[in-house]
């Protein structure tokens, strides 16, 4: 039975004219667009492998291979994202091309009247507002244009400021490690994620111990309590949302908790 991935690839293969990819378009063709053999040649794979992929057989497509398919098939950004979603693979070029989303993210977060920040798949903060920078001294009080983005896990496990700021640090640290494992899921082998995990394991006994537990929990909201060095005790309800067009990004908002 043909898989959804195979159906998608075949449909888009049949939409690509041979001359648009530098191939002669003459001769009789049973179907429009590219033949499997031609697409296989352009993607530097065997026709048999491509046939099996379209037929839904048990073959694995790497992120690099899918990226080449997307280029040859002239997929739009939405179509490319859908291709990688069907294949359950991480797009290797995704992080390099945000489609100009940086300024839009900053404007969106700045408009929120509460501490708010956006995390990427590695839990680097890629955008945050002034209230968040004020709350998270030692993490977000940095230049937003810095080459190295502030990372939530590095702050949690490597910064003394986090232990003083976050009420119930031990419980929160355990939950964060389990949430991170659940969040990265099948992408755990990605080079950037693997390097981050190795770094944290080498630099934090607590992270290494918690990571070895293999705990997995969903990333949820709820009450977050802080003991701020200047503002005193603060309580917020955390709300986390995934962005519709960038599923690797999460918007985290800390809304003021009502007094009991």
TrEMBL record:
SUPFAM superfamilies: lambda repressor-like DNA-binding domains. SMART domains: HTH_XRE (SM00530). Transmembrane segments: none annotated. It comes from the Bacteria. Residues 8-80 form the HTH cro/C1-type domain. CDD domains: HTH_XRE. InterPro entries: Cro/C1-type_HTH, Lambda_DNA-bd_dom_sf, MLTR_LBD. It holds the Pfam family MLTR_LBD. This is Helix-turn-helix domain-containing protein.
